[in-house]
Structure formats: C-alpha cells, structure tokens
Design brief:
Blueprint: H1 8-27, H2 31-47, H3 54-60, H4 69-78, H5 91-97, E1 120-124, E2 129-136, E3 139-155, E4 162-171, E5 186-192, H6 195-201, H7 206-216
Antiparallel strand pairs: 1-2, 2-3, 3-4, 4-5
Helix pairs in contact: 1-2
C-alpha cells in the first residue's frame, strides 16, 4: 500500500516543474538544453523532499526518461495515491476554532478535496470576514480577519500569483512585553479571493506559516 507523503504544495511544485520539462521537450531541439532542464527539474523536486526514502525518491523520479505529453500526464496521475490529505476536519472543530463567531458560516466540507488543500479558507460576505484554517504543530489553527475585495488582480502573498485578490487584515493576538491594555496591531496582506485557486497555485508554505505565527504569536 502506498504511504502518502506528498503535501498539496509539493504536488503543485512537481506539476509546475514537470510541465516546464514537458514544454522544453516539445519546443527545444537541442539535446543539451533538454538535458540541462531535466537535471534542473530533478534537483528542484529532490530539494522539496530532503527526507524521501528510496521508494519515495523512485516514485518522484519516474518522469526522468519521459519526453511525451501523455507520459508526463500519466506520471502526475501516478502520484495521486501518494498525496497526503489535509487532516480530517469536522464542522464542530471549525466552530471551536472561532468561538466568538456565533453565527459562523461554514464551508461545505463534503465538497472539499482534502488531498488538494494546504489550508481551508472561506468568506462570510454578510460580515466581510475571511476564515483561514491550517494544521500547525499537530493541531488545527484558525485565523479570522476583515476581508476587503480589491476588485483587481494583484500578487497574492501566499501563492505569489497574479489573481483576483482582497485585503485580508487580522489582529495579532500576542502583545509585546510592557504593552498598554489597549495595544492593537493589525496585519494585512493581499490574498486570493478564490481559496481553491490559491491552493492550486501554492508551491511553498513559508509565507502562510509566517503569517499565522505573526497573528497567533
């Protein structure tokens, strides 16, 4: 049985790199250039899995002899059994993360493909709030904040892609030593309006984890 070990953002990175190699194979006729790109793709994927076992490395490198579109697509499909899903999540867990939101609007969890999610994100238009949930240190962490549509495309701070964004502003929960009782710090960033698209774009999670650490303390 295949043991899942590829997280969503890692799969996105693999897909991006494999598509680069596929495009190179289809458009470049210099074998040296193709070889160089193939080696670069191999290295980039290997760097994303520094602790891969021999079996896992073999699965990741199965694309190396390929040069046709259908072969690369078959390779990506072959990785699906290795996708590590987002931790099992219930509506009760989500409500517990946001106890002050008495009429919390929840996402349709049955419609979520948890294998293709790095974070859960949803908006409540009635309150202009966005809710974000991510597994940190073995448990789910939740952040809520004001959601102000920018009505334009800009760079999302999480996936680093040009998408329709909104300004997501959350209040830091921690206070510096000696801060006054009314100390307040807001942290804002432009975030994809469509969290599904954002999850599909993510190739690294450093920005997400830094943001959560800044807000949650």
């Amino acid at each position: 049985m295949n043991q899942p070990f590829i997280r969503n953002h890692q799969y996105n990175l693999i897909r991006k790199q494999v598509r680069l190699l596929q495009h190179t194979c289809q458009t470049v006729f210099d074998p040296k250039v193709v070889k160089s790109v193939r080696e670069s793709v191999q290295l980039r994927i290997a760097e994303a899995f520094p602790n891969a076992t021999g079996e896992q490395a073999a699965a990741l490198e199965a694309f190396l002899p390929y040069d046709k579109e259908e072969q690369f697509q078959s390779y990506l499909r072959s990785l699906e059994p290795y996708l590590e899903p987002f931790p099992p999540t219930t509506e009760a867990q989500l409500r517990k993360l946001f106890p002050k939101a008495k009429k919390l609007k929840l996402p349709d969890l049955e419609a979520v493909d948890f294998r293709r999610v790095s974070y859960l994100g949803w908006t409540d238009i009635a309150t202009n709030k966005l809710f974000l949930v991510y597994p940190m240190d073995g448990k789910l962490a939740g952040v809520e904040g004001r959601f102000t549509p920018a009505n334009k495309k800009s760079t999302c701070f999480l996936c680093n892609k040009q998408e329709e964004v909104a300004l997501f502003t959350a209040t830091a929960k921690s206070k510096p030593a000696g801060a006054s009782p009314d100390y307040y710090k807001a942290i804002g960033n432009y975030l994809c309006v469509d969290s599904k698209k954002c999850n599909d774009n993510l190739t690294e999670i450093d920005a997400l984890e830094r943001f959560l650490a800044d807000v949650l303390g």
